Amino acid sequence: MPASGSPWIRKATTTSSPTIPPTTWSQKYNLVWDQILGYNLFPKSLRDSEIAFYKTKINKFGLPLDSREDYTKLDRSIWTATPGIQSRRLQRYYGSHRPLD
Q: Does residue 100 belong to any structural domain of this protein?
């Protein structure tokens, strides 16, 4: 299970990578399922930092899927925004029967 100290998260949150340019980014829209299904594989701090970063990338079309183009897909944007919604509201939206945080 990934944790805040996992190699995956360390690699994903560093600014230098030999294979990924520092200006490249993409929506992590599948983080929503980690939260909704209650797996908690990724820490809340990672979700929060992603949401804060995305707020800096919104353009007139919404949040782009990634750094390559300006367009977006509504379903992916909703999935990406969902971890920023308070747990009680998220539970009402998705009908969860267990706590999400």
A: no
Q: Residue 36: inside a domain, yes or no?
A: yes
Write down the residue that tokens 């990338």 correspond to: 57
pLDDT in tens, 59-95: 888 888 899 988 888 888 888 877 766 556 555 545 5
Exposure class string for 65-84: b at 16+ Cβ within 10 A, else e: beeeeeebeeebbebbbbbe
* Helix (H) or strand (E) segment spanning residue 64: none
The DSSP call for residue 84 is G
Q: Structural domain of residue 65, as residue ranges?
A: 25-94
Residue 15 counted as domain residue: no
